[in-house]
Every structure is written in C-alpha cells, then in structure tokens.
Write a structure and sequence with these properties.
Layout (H helix, E strand, L loop, with lengths): L2 H33 L10 H27 L9 H21 L11 H35 L4 H5 L1 H16 L9 H21 L39 H4 L42
C-alpha cells in the first residue's frame, strides 16, 4: 500500500464504524417493533430515517470518489502532504459526528422516540453537514496541490471537480432551513431536494463496475487509444480517451512535431518531411512518377 491507500483505509474505517453505529440503532428499533406492543412499540420517523439513508449514500459516494484520487497518487511526482492527511481525517470526523447525531437513543423512560430525536438535532445536523461539506472542499484543495502543485488547478480545469464544488456549496445552502424552527413542508422540501442531489451525484459519477471495459476510468469505453489516462485524470480527455499530456510525448507543448496530422503518440514515422502525404500511421506514401 502507498501512503494515500493507508490514509483512505483509515477514512473508510472511521466512517464505517459510524455506519455500523447507525445500523445498530436501526436494528434495535426494528427488534423492539417486533417484540413490543402498544405505546411501548417505537415508531419510525420518516424524516430521521431518510436523513440516515442520505448520509449513508453521501459517504458511499465519497469512498467512490477517493478511489479515483488514489489512481492520481500512483504518479511518482504526486506526494501526499500532511495537509491532505489532516483534511481527510477532519472529514472523517465530521461524518462520524453526523452519524452519532442521527443515531436515536432511548429516553429516560427507556423508550425510543425518533420524531423527538430529529426535532432536537435539526440545527446540529445543519451545522455538521456544513462542516462536512467545508471539509470536503478542503480535501479536494489539498489533493489538488499534491497532484498538480496548485490548490485550485483541479477546480479550474476539471468539469467533474467543478460540479463537485457546486454540490458541496449546494448542501451548505440546502440545510439552512434546519436552523429555523421545525416546519413540516419546509423540512420536506429540504429532504426531496437532498434526494435529488444524491441521485444526480450517483448518475454523474463514472461507474467503476465498468473497470474491465474502461480500465483508466476516463469515460471512454470504445476507441480509447490511451488506456492510462488515470495518471492525468485532472486533464480532460478527447474523443479517443487521450489527455494533452499523453499526446505530448517529449513535453515540448506540441503533439504533432512533424505536422503531418498524426499525433506523435501514434506516429510510426515522427520525422516525415513537410508536405508529404502520409498514411494512418504517419508514414509517407510513395507517389508514382
């Protein structure tokens, strides 16, 4: 394992423990609903249950995203910094606190009241969702610096990173009504919008189940002529699955040195004379005379 893999394993362990905490709480409620009757039987509260499902989905998507970052750190020039370690640990801590908040506890009389629990934690839920999204932005800034040498480079050139930033800011705005007194229609609007965002995040993230069809995870499944684009994942790929850095074979900023229309990466004859007619491999086609 490299340093980043160790770090992400720690992140998954911390958030995984929090998920276990949530599932234990839900399991306790299901068990008590099965064995208790009447007023002693706990009732599910759809708002709290839905927030639990939303948080699990968000954390699962973060695991998904960090897999892509792990590929970037395989570049020998990428070095994991202490700031990235601190940022990812902070994010894991925020998510864990959120899961603790969402885990319902029995009251003094031994009963579990999910609705009362949700009404009590609403403003705290908003604060820690905000803290989590700010931590996520910090993580991507530090990761960007590790990989590109600039804190903002990934946000400047990567559409996926830009959309991720908008989603983070969107969550901060979305939970603002939770600071206000409880109102069912307003909480419902927050919930429905949150579900819409999670669905959009899920659909907008490449499916790593296609790894055999798309080994470099650049979204180009067919006609992918550059199958190691994951090493330059912060750069956009063209229709053939290649980034500019992959096509710039000698690092001089030119991807077709002899100007024959065939990129150097695919040019079997890189020093074709000017004006020559070439074939698909970049080699001169003899003319009859």
């Amino acid at each position: 394992m490299d340093n980043f893999e160790y770090l992400t394993v720690s992140y998954v362990l911390i958030t995984g423990i929090g998920m276990s905490r949530l599932f234990v709480s839900l399991g306790t409620i299901v068990e008590e609903r099965a064995v208790l009757e009447g007023e002693d039987r706990p009732q599910f509260h759809w708002m709290l249950t839905t927030w639990i499902l939303l948080l699990i989905a968000i954390i699962s998507l973060s695991w998904h995203a960090f897999y892509k970052w792990n590929l970037a750190y395989e570049d020998p020039q990428s070095q994991l910094s202490p700031f990235s370690t601190l940022a990812l640990t902070l994010l894991a801590g925020c998510f864990y606190i959120l899961m603790e908040l969402l885990s319902p506890e029995a009251s003094e009389d031994g009963k579990i009241d999910m609705e009362r629990h949700f009404l009590l934690i609403r403003p705290h839920l908003a604060r820690w969702v905000t803290a989590s999204m700010l931590a996520m932005i910090l993580v991507f800034l530090t990761f960007s610096h590790d990989v590109t040498g600039s804190f903002t480079e990934v946000y400047r050139i990567s559409t996926a990173a830009q959309l991720g930033l908008l989603v983070n800011i969107g969550w901060i705005i979305l939970v603002t009504p939770l600071y206000l007194p409880a109102q069912q229609w307003r909480d419902l609007a927050v919930m429905l919008t949150g579900f819409g965002m999670v669905i959009g995040m899920t659909l907008g993230t490449p499916s790593y189940s296609l790894i055999q069809d798309d080994p470099d995870l650049d979204g180009v499944l067919n006609n992918d002529l550059c199958e190691d684009s994951d090493l330059w994942f912060w750069e956009e790929v063209d229709q053939f699955g290649c980034t500019f850095s992959q096509l710039d074979m000698n690092g001089n900023g030119v991807i077709d040195d002899d100007g024959d229309g065939v990129y150097d990466r695919f040019d079997d004859c890189p020093n074709t004379a000017a004006g020559d007619t070439v074939n698909d491999d970049g080699c001169s086609i003899p003319t009859g005379g």
